[in-house]
């Protein structure tokens, strides 16, 4: 069977940027920047993105294109049999990550619908906190929304790489930017917003500390969808003449831009209404609705916001589902449709106890955490960093010949740049991630 390819470079960049731009940018980045010292965090994050981030992204895309296979097959082809476990780790990570990512994706559907019905709106932060707790803790409701989110994800993936994924991201990503711009303009023109803009943009370098560096590196990997084969899978559909370096730079710039704009959307609005920028994960579902509730036409902006969040989550979840779907259809010769349905159903099933663990199953704990927190801890602290280290090492050492050939592609990558890239994937990226892991456990 002919392997599918992206129809255009634009389509690939939108798909890869769609994977990268997700809940990580809009939900997590602003609250990290809010609690980790604003401008200093932003600067550090940018530095990590353009050094380690771009190098590992180029490595993943090149591995995928060299092998033209799912991550398990790709690591075997470029690195040899002993690298297969790295692909398997990516496969497992994609399934586990999507199972709880989709639960949060479901909340965004719930908030969008509840904005239209008026169920969530114009409340104080206390009321909104109660409503959020009620939603995530109730036994049935969030599971229905989680199911709905998985249905949307499955539908796009089963239609195929070009007619499903590429077609949807080409429409959704520009829409996302448009909605985001509307919101940023609203936010920075609020009276009193300037203090938030300053907090976000003025780096106070005396604030930089090890904890901040760790948070920035972990966030960069998660946000760029690295360390688990998503970019390998998307890279495997990339035509041979597309420039990997410039495409990676596009994806990273777009991902950074959305995180930056999300910070400009959230922090000034939060400052304008004298709320707490360090509110943590509740910033999106509690603080922001309180802000919307207090501004003129707030419900319109709230609907725009949750629509944008849903798009961001969906274009990421399809890249997660694409990994096991590629694996099962290529390894066992299953069609794309049954593979999408089958894997999607399994992921939905794993998400059910995740959701329940925030409510009625809250007393079942794993290492002192709810099932939801436990899975997210596993992915954040083990699967992604270990996957990232091994991917960089594979590209820099075992698969260097094949990977560098993809990158050099008709002299696209200047020699000095290739040398720099090699130092980063061979030494700097693995050591930096190991250091982050060790320091993370020590603290
Ligand atoms: N990058 C996505 C986000 O920021 C999450 C993600 C990670 C998606 C890994 C796919 C693969 O939300």
Automatic annotation (TrEMBL):
Superkingdom assignment: Bacteria
SUPFAM superfamilies: SNF-like
Primary location group: membrane
Subcellular location: Membrane
InterPro entries referenced in this protein's UniProt entry, alphabetically: Na/ntran_symport (IPR000175), SNS_sf (IPR037272), YocR/YhdH-like (IPR047218)
Keyword Transmembrane: yes
Membrane topology: Multi-pass membrane protein
A GO cellular component entry from the record: membrane
Keywords: Membrane, Transmembrane, Transmembrane helix, Transport
Bilayer-crossing regions: 12-30, 42-63, 83-104, 143-163, 175-194, 214-237, 249-273, 279-297, 304-327, 339-361, 382-400, 420-442
Pfam families: SNF
Name of this chain's protein: Na+-dependent transporter
């Amino acid at each position: 069977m002919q392997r599918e390819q992206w129809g255009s470079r634009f389509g690939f960049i939108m798909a890869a940027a769609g994977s990268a731009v997700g809940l990580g940018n809009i939900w997590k980045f602003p609250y990290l920047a809010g609690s980790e010292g604003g401008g200093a965090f932003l600067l550090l994050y940018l530095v990590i993105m353009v050094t380690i981030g771009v190098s590992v992204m180029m490595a993943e895309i090149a591995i995928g294109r060299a092998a033209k296979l799912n991550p398990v097959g790709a690591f075997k082809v470029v690195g040899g049999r002993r690298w297969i476990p790295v692909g398997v780790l990516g496969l497992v990570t994609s399934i586990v990550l999507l199972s709880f990512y989709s639960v949060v994706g479901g909340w965004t559907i719930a908030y969008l619908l509840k904005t239209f019905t008026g169920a969530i709106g114009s409340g104080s932060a206390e009321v909104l906190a109660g409503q959020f707790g009620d939603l995530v803790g109730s036994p049935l409701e969030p599971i229905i929304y989680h199911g709905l989110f998985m249905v949307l994800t499955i539908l796009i993936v089963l239609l195929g790489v070009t007619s499903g994924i590429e077609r949807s991201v080409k429409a959704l990503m520009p829409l996302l930017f448009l909605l985001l711009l509307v919101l940023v303009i609203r936010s920075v023109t609020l009276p009193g917003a300037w203090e938030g803009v300053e907090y976000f943009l003025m780096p106070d370098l005396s604030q930089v500390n090890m904890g901040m560096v760790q948070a920035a590196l972990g966030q960069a990997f998660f946000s760029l969808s690295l360390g688990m084969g998503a970019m390998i899978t998307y890279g495997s559909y990339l035509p041979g003449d597309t420039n990997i370096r410039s495409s990676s730079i596009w994806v990273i710039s777009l991902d950074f831009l959305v995180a930056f704009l999300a910070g400009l959307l959230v922090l000034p609005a939060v400052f304008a209404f004298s709320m707490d920028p360090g509110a943590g994960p509740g910033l999106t579902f509690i603080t922001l609705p309180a802000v919307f509730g207090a501004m003129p036409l707030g419900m319109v902006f709230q609907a725009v916001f949750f629509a944008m969040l849903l798009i961001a989550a969906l274009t990421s979840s399809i890249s997660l589902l694409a990994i096991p779907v590629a694996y099962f259809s290529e390894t066992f010769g299953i069609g794309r449709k049954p593979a999408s349905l089958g894997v999607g159903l399994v992921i939905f099933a794993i998400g059910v106890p995740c959701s329940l663990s925030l409510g009625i199953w809250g007393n079942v704990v794993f290492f002192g955490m709810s099932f939801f927190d436990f899975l997210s801890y596993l992915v954040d602290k083990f699967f992604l960093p270990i996957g990232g280290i091994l991917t960089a090492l594979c590209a820099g050492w075992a698969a260097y010949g094949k990977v560098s050939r993809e990158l050099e592609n008709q002299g696209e990558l200047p020699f000095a740049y290739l040398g720099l890239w090699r130092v980063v994937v061979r030494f700097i990226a693995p050591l930096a991630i190991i250091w982050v892991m060790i320091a993370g456990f020590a603290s």
